[in-house]
Design a protein that fits this description.
single chain, 394 residues, Dihydrodipicolinate Reductase, domain 2, six-stranded parallel β-sheet, Rossmann fold, 2 domains, eight-stranded mixed β-sheet, alpha/beta, 14 strands
């Protein structure tokens, strides 16, 4: 019997398999970028993404640390009608300037312990540098105050756990000013995931291209991991809140200097996070002098959410599902609404007798991911989140 040629065998085998369309046939469908056709529009679901003030609780607030970021805190508090009754800074002129700008009737202090002695102050906002915060947080909790701590909360997880436990024992609430949680686009996207609008989350892609060269000559430029630690923490925190209780398996990260950059700190960073059944990629390009862009994509088993714009405040959001496309109109902006949101959540939690969504205990998960990313960038290999207890390098 004559042997069947290789070409004949291939021809016979191909008859029993589905035919694959040629590249020419798929050109009109953008080759690989083919998905289910989205037809029609539906009303955007109403979700609780905006700051929610307490109904009746109006405590006296003491503010410690009147540096640059304090301006945004105090502007948000004044707009919300909060009662900031005391301001404190080691350099009294700084506190005096903020008093004139926002709360002219507030008392001034240079020693935070004197402020903590006031019985009419129930809530403390601590906006000092990270290295100075833990002892002040501890003193405030022991003085019986509820505390909002500026981010990053701590530089080691053990200290964070100890302070969270102290708050529990003191029956006081300790929250973190992780203000990105109340950025309108982040807030809406998170609430959409929590509401199950796109099913189980399987993919997260966050890409930020912005100009961070302004830090040249400031103390921030001395931070080796300026991008991953001081900046990316907001995006890592957003990822953690969207994933909720799902634990990341490994994280791989790297940093690099942009060609021609004058800053001492590396302005490029990237992070890859692995989950058992999902993935996340984060890209940060802090040397984008022209055409800034911020885009976030969440992919689920039943839909996708995309938010994009030219800045963190100028965002356009699209929700895509089998129903079609929804385009919610976002109200507010990250600055100052994010800062309003962190304090509003703490005050509402006090009034309602519950833990705040931005509690210190919850924020430790975000810090564990951040510390792992920094460690990975230092070591050049993947790291398991939670295995690194402290920030390896500032």
């Amino acid at each position: 019997m004559a042997k069947t040629s290789a070409r004949s065998r291939a021809s016979k085998n191909s008859d029993s398999k589905p035919k694959v369309a040629s590249r020419a046939a798929t050109t009109n469908n953008d080759y690989a970028l083919v998905g289910r056709r989205i037809t029609g529009r539906f009303p955007a679901p109403k979700l609780p993404y905006q700051p929610r003030d307490p109904k009746h609780y109006k405590p006296g607030i003491g503010f410690i640390g009147c540096g640059g970021i304090s301006e945004t805190h105090l502007r948000a508090y004044r707009a919300a009608g909060y009662r900031v009754v005391a301001l404190c800074d080691l350099k009294e002129p700084k506190a005096e300037r903020r008093r004139k700008e926002f709360f002219p009737k507030a008392a001034l202090y240079v020693d935070y312990r004197e402020l903590l002695d006031r019985a009419d102050i129930e809530v403390i906002d601590i906006a000092t540098h990270t290295i100075d915060r833990p002892p002040i947080v501890e003193a405030a909790l022991r003085a019986g105050k509820h505390v909002l701590s500026q981010k990053p909360f701590v530089s080691d997880l053990a200290t964070g756990r100890r302070l969270a436990e102290l708050a529990r024992r003191q029956k006081r609430l300790l929250a973190v000013n992780q203000n990105g949680r109340w950025a309108p686009h982040f807030g809406y996207m998170r609430e959409a995931v929590w509401a199950g609008l796109i099913g189980e989350l399987t993919g997260v892609n966050l890409a930020v291209h912005w100009d961070h060269t302004w830090v040249a000559g400031t103390r921030f430029d001395d931070m080796r991991h300026l991008v991953l630690n001081d900046f990316a923490i907001h995006w890592l925190d957003f990822l953690t809140t969207c994933m909720r209780e799902r634990q990341p398996r490994r994280v791989f990260a790297s940093i690099a200097r942009s060609a021609g950059q004058v800053n001492k700190a590396a302005l490029l960073g990237q992070v890859i996070v692995e989950y058992e059944d999902a993935q996340a990629t984060l890209c940060f390009h802090g040397d984008t002098k022209f055409g800034p862009r911020d885009e976030s994509t969440l992919v689920g088993t039943h839909g996708t959410i995309v938010s994009s714009g030219t800045s963190i405040s100028d965002q356009r959001l699209r929700l895509l599902t089998e129903r079609g496309e929804a385009r919610p109109t976002l109200v507010g902006s990250w600055f100052p609404d994010g800062f309003h949101g962190t304090m509003a959540e703490l005050l509402s939690a006090v009034e309602e007798g519950r833990e705040p969504m931005n509690s210190a205990a919850d924020n430790l998960r975000s810090l564990a991911l951040c510390f792992a990313a920094v460690a990975s960038a230092e070591r050049g290999k993947p790291v398991v989140p939670g295995s690194v207890e402290r920030l390896l390098a500032q």
